[in-house]
Amino acid sequence: MNVDYRTVRAVDESWLRIREIPNYEQVAGQILFRKIFELAPAALGMYQFGSEFETGTEDKLYQHPVFLRHAKAVVQMLDLAINLMGPDMDPVTVALKDLGARHTVYGVLPPHYEIVGQALLHTLEVALGDGWTEPVKKGWIGVYTFVSTAMMEGAEEYLKEKMEEERAERKRQEELTRAQAEEAIAGAKARAAQAAKKKGVRFDTVHNISEKNQLPVVTRSRKSLGRILLGKSVHSRSNVSTEKEIERKKIPNSRIEDRGLVTWLDKALNISRHR
């Protein structure tokens, strides 16, 4: 929303009258927050100083140093925003968006801006007295609409950015967890292979015994006894396993279709060993 020169001039002139009030920051701040808490009593809990007081002790609250400092800071912020208004509204827009983002952290929501707007108009009416004319009122409504819109835009941008950051962080954590899991699995496989190697447990599968079937055979001699017996290409190893050991250790993909042949080979191997 753009604020025209006439609006800015009406607001600036009326604000100069507010600044003529002795200790205007504290006076205007007290009127403002009294009205805010009147319109929305629950808003008191949003402030640090509000939790220190029980219901019925508002008069004590409005004299508390923490409250006075906060009320003064809010009026000073409004004073700064008015002074920044002019032909170039970009600086004040940036400042208001940043302020809106910070207020999101405090739990300020869009409905709260409407309450503050009503309280601000009441404060100006009380402080200006006869100077609160219709043109002045219209000018302040325009200015506050500009201020609140910029702050809410800043809050929305902040929340979107925060959501993107959280989404990116979740993705990073998921990728990290996946990488750690893969590393753990690879490490477990490596340790299992190393342990098996230390125990001397090795199994080999005989390939190409026939074009249709593959028969797993485990030999117990370094000599190519299988080649002598079958006339086929057989890988021999030093480890010994019988048919029962093969079944007990559950070798993957092992198919023993001809038990008679395996028994015959086992007997042949025993005979060869005792020679």
Automatic annotation (TrEMBL):
GO molecular function: heme binding; metal ion binding; oxygen carrier activity
InterPro entries, per database record: Globin (IPR000971), Globin-like_OT (IPR050532)
UniProt keywords, alphabetically: Coiled coil, Heme, Iron, Metal-binding, Oxygen transport, Transport
Superkingdom of the source species: Eukaryota
Ranges in a coiled coil: 156-198
Globin domain mapped to chain residues: 1-156
Family: Belongs to the globin family.
Stated name of the protein: Flavohemoprotein
Gene source species: Nitzschia inconspicua
Source species taxonomy: Eukaryota, Sar, Stramenopiles, Ochrophyta, Bacillariophyta
